[in-house]
Here is the input.
Amino acid sequence: MSSATDSAPLAATGPALGKRPSGPSRGRGGSGYPRYVAGKLGGAVVSLFAVLVTSFFLFRLIPGDPVKFMTGGRPVSAEQLDIYRQEFGLDLPLWQQFTDYCLKALSGDLGTSYQFHAPVVDKIVEALPNTLLLTGTAFVIYTALGAFLGTRSAWRHGGLGDRLNTGLALTLYSIPSFWLGLLLIIVLSVGVDPIPGLFPTGGMESGGEEGFAYLLDVAHHLVLPVVTLVAVEYGQTLLVTRSALLDEMGGDYLTTARAKGLRDDLVRRRHAVPNAMLPTVTLVFVNLGRTVAGVILVETVFSWPGLGGLFYQALSVPDLPLVQGLFFAFAAAVILMNTLADLLYPLLDPRVGR
Here is the structure.
């Protein structure tokens, strides 16, 4: 799996990047757009159900007995193991387990974690703010950086700056995020002569700090994981923005704008960039959905107490209710954001959704 997708599986329902459907056009007041919305919402519901089914059966292929884990390695009798299985419903036929799981999920109950003995929903809510802090900070930075550098590269395509930007973006985009994270820990946390260790090796806080000192401590721990995510993710936004803007630069309307005497700066900002941002908007929504999922490998490498680290911890047991619930939450976030992108896209480009 590439570094840019070290997170929960994506369920893409949005329009393909850079593609604009063609076909007969209808007015927004007609039945075309409502039918388009209904189709997208229906597709999202089907996708969510498919994820629910997948999350149940997929993780039962993982080797390991969760009941034996719950005993803490102590020698127990077969009768005691049966009691545990009955308590968690693991003695029921698979079809009945699946039915119970689906009915509970529809009511918002994703089960009880084997290892934490707490509702899965509570564990997700507890870890979600930490993930949003990490991946949300990185998301804002790499989206702004990628869009800015992509615009500059396209407008001066073929130049030295363009070649350096695209070359660096492609290189970093191809690097596994966990490898880059480990490298940063070795160089900037442990320290390599003559570079001293400047940042913590992991975690979210050192402990014992309060008030503003606590915020500085969290920010200090945040630096390396954010740098890792920005380095491996900004290239995707840069390349998509650059490609879309290059497609627009040959347009007649830009020639007309220049002929009117507008400076290149104004032509780019007022005319070319707004039209070229449609594929980037789609990518932003896709990445926004992945922000909720977090990046499992990065959170694991830096011991960040978020959803990604929790998923890795649950997977090693295996804690079936917790991995099922997290997998469903990850995929649901991506499906939701893709569907929202689908619904907003016709407002940005009237040729879509007719």
Observations:
- The first helix runs from residue 32 to 58.
- Residues 3 and 176 are 4 Å apart (CA to CA).
- Residues 1-29 have pLDDT under 50 and may be disordered.
